[in-house]
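Quick one:
INPUT:
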């Protein structure tokens, strides 16, 4: 069986982290989200993949290349104009000769999620799961184990059951997509609604808890990171000086230096070429990308710090995400708490977020003793002077003195 991975989207709701990076390439536990999808397929014996790419496609293609490094063979198809998800699936038609799997490249999935579809006897299957925020997705109604209705992003809570974007399809679906074009409809939700009206059965398969997760907004990345951290295996490379305390599963990359007096509580990942300490504290569910430098007396907990970041001495970071190349002056502090954060796609919508820290886009540079209120979102390439307190949303390239 072959698989089609949809990886052409931009992910505007995840800004600022998708400013110059496609959503599928955002690192979670130091691996692109898309890599979890590829590995889940490979572990189920699906080694032929058609990848639909578009936004910053070169980032995807240079990382995965022909797929051999991941035990698969990848063919790329460019969706030059993002008309919709059904249109994206249709672009893979010439590569498909039998039933196939469709997966969204921006969702983190486990192998068991794919396996449930392979066991189906029906031509069409849809993986569904429960969520406490159904309005962000397509909600699904079932009758006797089959899909009876699909509604895309409803204005009010109709049901907490949603589609995960993982499907088993027959090649006959390409004819259905072609018929849908006559109505200028190009999305999978409309396609399934159309098929249900024609009484084409679609079997529902329930995803097990923790086997599927999606990051719609910046703060969702922390949830994905926590899930991915559950599979961290202990591995220690680089240099670990005397007086370092390590508890739990901690993965340390080649060339990293962990200086004396540092305390690390796993699960935790430290990339290659990092310099940590002395006297730094890393708490659980923290991921540091390659070439991260944490200066002395800094504390980081439940956070993602992407590659090439520098964090000044005496800083405190919790429940936060820092994009590539961020530089923080000494005594930075991200205050964590409950807050409301407006949606990037619709400013009239806001979401209550518990335990939110700060979210910073790539190449931001902050002076000394900067403090962020809960839920602060700093756009890419911002410059912030010393002794500033930030809150709310700050646009890309802002200058705050």
């Amino acid at each position: 069986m072959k698989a089609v991975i949809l990886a052409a989207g931009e992910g505007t709701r995840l800004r600022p982290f998708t400013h110059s990076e496609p959503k599928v390439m955002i690192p979670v536990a130091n691996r692109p989200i898309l890599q979890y999808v590829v590995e889940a397929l490979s572990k189920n014996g699906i080694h032929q993949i058609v990848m639909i790419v578009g936004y910053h496609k070169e980032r995807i293609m240079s990382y995965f290349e022909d797929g051999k490094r991941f035990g698969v063979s990848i063919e790329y198809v460019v969706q030059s104009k993002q008309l919709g998800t059904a249109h994206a699936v249709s672009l893979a038609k010439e590569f498909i000769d039998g039933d196939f799997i469709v997966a969204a490249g921006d969702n983190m999935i486990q192998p068991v999620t794919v396996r449930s579809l392979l066991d189906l006897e029906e031509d069409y299957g849809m993986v569904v799961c429960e969520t406490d925020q159904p309005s962000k997705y397509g909600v699904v109604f079932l009758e006797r184990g089959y899909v009876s209705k699909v509604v895309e992003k409803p204005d009010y809570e109709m049901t907490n059951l949603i589609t995960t974007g993982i499907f088993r399809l027959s090649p006959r679906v390409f004819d259905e997509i072609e018929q849908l074009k006559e109505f200028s409809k190009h999305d999978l939700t409309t396609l399934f609604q159309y098929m249900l009206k024609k009484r084409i059965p679609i079997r529902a398969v329930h995803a097990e808890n923790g086997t599927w997760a999606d990051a719609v907004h910046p703060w969702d990345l922390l949830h994905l990171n926590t899930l991915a951290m559950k599979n961290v295996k202990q591995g220690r490379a680089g240099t670990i000086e005397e007086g370092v305390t390590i508890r739990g599963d901690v993965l340390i990359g080649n060339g990293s230096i962990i200086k004396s007096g540092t305390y690390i509580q796993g699960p935790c990942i430290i990339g290659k070429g990092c310099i940590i300490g002395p006297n730094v504290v890393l708490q659980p569910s923290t991921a540091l990308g390659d070439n991260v430098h944490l200066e002395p007396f800094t504390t980081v907990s439940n956070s993602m710090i992407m590659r090439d970041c520098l964090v000044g001495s005496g800083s405190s970071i919790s429940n936060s995400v820092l994009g590539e190349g961020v530089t923080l002056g000494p005594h930075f502090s991200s205050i964590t708490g409950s807050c409301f954060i407006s949606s990037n796609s619709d400013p009239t919508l806001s979401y209550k977020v518990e335990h939110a820290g700060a979210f910073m886009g790539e190449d931001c540079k902050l002076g000394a003793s900067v403090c962020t209120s809960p839920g602060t979102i700093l756009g890419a390439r911002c410059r912030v002077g010393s002794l500033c307190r930030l809150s709310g949303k700050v646009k890309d390239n802002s200058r705050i003195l």
